[in-house]
Amino acid sequence: MRVLFTTRGSSGHLGPLVPFARACQRAGHDVTVAAQEGFAANVERAGLPFEPFDAPDPEAWMPLMGDFGGLDFESAHRAMIGEFFAHLDLDAELPGLEALVERLRPDVIVRETWEFGSTLVAEQKGVPIARVALTTAAVEEESAAIAAPRVDAARRARGLPADPDGERLRRGLRLSVVPEAMEGSEAPFADATHRFRFTAGETSALPDWWPGNADPLVYLTFGSVAAGAHLPFYPRLYRAAIDALGPLPLRLLVTVGDAERDIAELGERFANVHVETWVDHDAVSAAAAAVVCHGGFGSTLGTLAHGKPLVIVPVFSADQWANGEAVARAGAGEILADDPGSRGALDLPSSAVLGALAGAVRRVLEGPARERAEAVATEMRALPPVDTAAPLLASLAADDPSPAL
Fold first, then answer.
1. pTM of this prediction exceeds 0.85
2. What angle do CA 320, 321, 327 make, to 5 degrees?
3. Per residue in 233-261, pLDDT tens?
4. What is the Cα–Cα distance from 296 to 222, expressed in whole angstroms?
5. Are strands 174-176 and 129-132 parallel, antiparallel or unpaired?
6. Fewer CB in a 10 Å sphere around the end CB: N or C, the chain?
């Protein structure tokens, strides 16, 4: 079987696809990952075959990014999905993706939540399509509604049947590693969703940065993007969080990501605080008593896979709010968040949120969140391994053995 995985290619969009691509390889299938050309290194670092398609012209997307700073968070979220992912990205990728499908003749296409061009190409070429969820079902449902008008316009331009409400975006096999405890009892796509185990990676011992100190280890990270030079969060957000947590009786490990930022910008630190650019997430999650993070998909599930509670402070993406709410719904931690309708897209979390951080960390260290996080980890470990997704995809391809290429 030939399986084509399609994604924007940035780390957060590619990462959840990788286990499914590797599962298909282990099953003996021919796997290719198609992504924007600028993200080739991400795919190659994952050890997967890569084929490029075009990204939007900077002259098209840079004004949009500049406008984000003046929008409230909810408006920026809608613009990112409707104007960026479902319009600029889609228009740029379609010619290359169409040519690639003609050449590779895949038996099945597997896309990620916010890559929309493949839905048109799959329908045009008669190729079965599935998707890997990058978020909760509720956020996927919202995303389909936001993207629908732009995707429908592209459909009509190619002579495909109208889909103004995005029903075709919602169809098909959905592969997810989000445990049911985080979804809620009325989550969309229940009949189409197949859940798989989020597999934690191998762990290794951390260096002992605090010899003789046995206080609980708390890990603070805002992911790999927040410290970037094009965003306003570093060093102020990191400094505020360190100032809130440093006085507590704990060992605080902070990472700022691989961005070229000077750790010295954080200023003088407490003796119980240690800062690194990067530490293996599995290693620190296994050792930590709790994790404070932005609610990124990988950070959140990677922490829960080790049975550790979270305090989530959303920073710059709507799915971070959704992941925080899902963690709170499962009882595995807390979310500290401003109203996304009142906060600017590039604003720092408010002083009220940051002022509540110390109390939230104390509660998850001492309260029932620890037991609930372990219960979620138990649920995750009981799910089928991701390798069982390969036969599902093969069955999907077998239902349409002769794609009309």
1. yes
2. 90
3. 999 999 999 999 999 999 999 999 866 67
4. 8
5. parallel
6. C
